Amino acid sequence: MSEIRRIRVLIVDDSAIVRKILSETLAGEADIEVVGTAPDPVVARDKILALKPDVLTLRSESAFSAPRWT
Fold first, then answer.
1. How confident is the chain (70 residues) per 10-residue block, as mean pLDDT?
2. Which of 20, 30, 32, 59 is least surrounded by Cβ atoms within 10 Å, i.e. has the fewest?
């Protein structure tokens, strides 16, 4: 039997409770691995480069509340 490749997820949200709830919820899924969390896109940028997630969750309000990161 071959091993199932897990989807690597990075959660980005300015709310610590939302990050916690999403992390706990997704942790219960066999095919999903939460590789990290970030409070804003600025912190997320470094984590994206380091962790190389397959999927990024980003609440749209978070994207507009942080300074631009180009």
1. 86 94 95 96 95 90 53
2. 30
Contact 40, 66 (CB under 8 A): yes
- Total domains in the chain come to 1
Q: Which domain holds residue 35?
A: 7-65
Give the contacts of 65 (CB within 8 A, at least 6 positions apart). Answer: 14, 40
Instruction: Indicate the pTM of the whole model.
Output: 0.80
In a domain? residue 2: no
Q: What is the DSSP pairing of strand 7-12 with strand 55-58? A: parallel
Q: Is residue 70 part of a domain?
A: no
Report the C-alpha gap between 13 and 17 in whole angstroms: 9
